[in-house]
Amino acid sequence: MPKLAITGLWLSHFRSYKSAFIEPDARIIALYGPNGAGKTNILEAISMLSPGRGLRRAPADELMRHPENLGWKVSAELESLSENHEISTKSVPDSGRFVEIDGKKAPQTALGNLARIIWLVPVMDRLWIEGASERRRFLDRMVMSFHPSHADATLIYEKSMRDRNRLLKDQVRDAAWYDALGAGIANGQVRRGNYCQSH
Ligand SMILES: Nc1ncnc2c1ncn2[C@@H]1O[C@H](COP(=O)(O)OP(=O)(O)OP(=O)(O)O)[C@@H](O)[C@H]1O
Ligand SMILES: [Mg+2]
Question: Is the entire prediction scored with pTM above 0.85?
Answer without folding.
Answer: no
